[in-house]
Design goal:
heterodimer, A: mainly beta, Protocatechuate 3,4-Dioxygenase, subunit A, 9-stranded mixed beta sheet, 1 helix, about 5% helix, globular, B: mainly beta, about 30% strand, binds fe (iii) ion, dioxygenase (chain B)
């Protein structure tokens, strides 16, 4: 069965992950991208950061049990994809994909500050799965970065741009820069989300 | 290509959907930023060798209560290309409708022989196979008597393929009232396992469930 208009197979429907995404599937190596793997010599190049915040529902309550996924460029602004295989700017100790299930609805993701890809300000794509919804997607930017003023995604959301910029909140004793970014899934102060199926 | 993003539907009778579904129309992604929205998930060999058999907690343990089933299928992109080496993470309730998850407070019966957790990888042709216990339906909204129909949760990741979905069972009485199934409309059919003969393997029922990862996900495969 194919879609006559496009000759494509119809996609399996996305569905909610429900409230019980298994904690059993957690992978510590995907929750801290600054080190390659626990106990292995090898660390990502760049400025260590902690991106933390809350995922909130329409009533301002924490969205417990959500699954967050992160995707970003390395410190040189290069995404690790089949298209950049062999690129001199690839960091062998950084793949750029993170995932965690957040039991309480608050998250803390350790990574490096992404470099600016051509024409872009540094950003991290965040995908949110949770009970009650399918996948929703946004991008977070970093306060004070050159390029925020001219980034096409920030420009596309107009007056809502400040809702996509993480606030700098000091530095940990170990030297990681802390950024705070709350995701409001619905209602007042709703975070802008993007349609990656229709655009 | 549409020139407006979608407005997401809210699953009827689903309180969590009401609390968590964005109300604003989704924003369109500027063309120059399109690729930055497509994650590439590194291949991970997270599956343990015995996890394809979810009908027992370990190879030397007894079978869990209920009907053992086999589920097989192919994972492909919308253009028909096999997704090889993808990780399928599978989770489901036991025969009594209970998840062995620390946050499942339903009080339904646990089964000492059932974990309901498994991971398998697709082969070079994108094929996968696992065994599971046919899951029980469970009462999701006791206040209005609304059940969740039998279903198996699956998460598929690998390369730029990323999908979280559920396989449902044909002819189940609660399929029509499920809020997420209602949002799928006629396309719900794609999420039904197709019964087939189990052959001579040690299960009572078998289902084919082919998975197509669509839309945005094709970017780095074409
Ligand atoms: Fe479920």
């Amino acid at each position: 069965m194919t879609d006559a208009a496009s000759n494509l197979l119809p996609a399996t429907n996305e569905d909610t992950c429900g409230p019980y995404f298994p904690i059993y599937f957690a992978d510590p190596a995907l929750e801290d991208l600054t080190r390659f793997d626990p106990g292995v010599v090898g660390a990502a190049a760049g400025t260590a950061i902690i991106l933390r915040g809350r995922v909130l529902d329409r009533h301002g309550e924490l969205a417990n049990g959500a699954v967050l996924e992160f995707w970003q460029a390395n410190a040189n602004g290069i995404y690790r994809t089949p298209a950049t295989e062999g690129h001199e700017g690839i960091d062998p100790w950084f793949h750029g994909y993170g995932r965690m299930r957040i039991a309480s609805g608050a998250y803390e993701f350790r990574t490096i500050l992404p470099g600016a890809a051509p024409g872009r300000a540094p950003n991290v794509t965040i995908t949110i799965f949770s009970d009650g919804i399918n996948r929703i997607v946004t991008q977070v930017f970093f306060d004070g970065q050159a390029g925020n003023d001219s980034d096409p995604v920030l420009q596309a959301v107009g007056d809502d741009a400040p809702k996509l910029i993480a606030r700098h909140d000091g530095r940990t004793a170990s030297g990681a820069e802390v950024y705070v970014f709350d995701i409001v899934m619905a209602g007042p102060g709703e975070t802008p989300f993007f349609d990656d199926l229709e655009s | 290509m549409a020139n407006q993003g979608r407005i997401l539907g809210i699953g009827p009778t689903d309180n969590t959907s009401d609390q968590r579904t964005p109300r604003q129309r989704l924003r369109l992604i500027p063309e120059v930023a399109r690729e930055s929205f497509v994650p590439v998930v590194p291949a991970r060999y997270a599956a343990n060798p015995h996890e394809w058999d979810m009908t027992r907690t370990a190879p030397d343990r007894p079978r869990a209560a209920g009907v053992p089933i086999e589920v097989t299928g192919r994972v492909r992109t919308a253009s028909g290309r096999a997704v090889a080496g993808a990780l399928l993470e599978v989770w489901s309730a036991n025969h009594f409708g209970r998840y062995r998850h620390i946050e499942d407070h339903s009080g339904l019966q646990l089964d000492e022989n059932h974990l309901g957790l498994g991971r398998v990888l697709t082969d070079d042709a994108g094929r996968y196979r696992f065994w599971a216990i046919s899951p029980g339906a469970y009462l999701a909204r006791p206040d209005i008597g609304r059940w969740r129909p039998k279903h198996i949760h699956m998460s598929i990741s690998g390369g730029s393929s990323r999908l979280i979905t559920q396989m449902y069972f044909p002819g189940e009485p609660n399929n029509e009232t499920d809020p997420m199934a209602i949002l799928m409309g006629d396309a719900f059919e794609r999420n039904l396992g197709i019964p087939r003969d189990a052959g001579d393997v040690d299960v009572e029922e078998a289902y084919d469930f082919d998975i197509v990862v669509g839309g945005r996900n094709a970017t780095f495969f074409e």
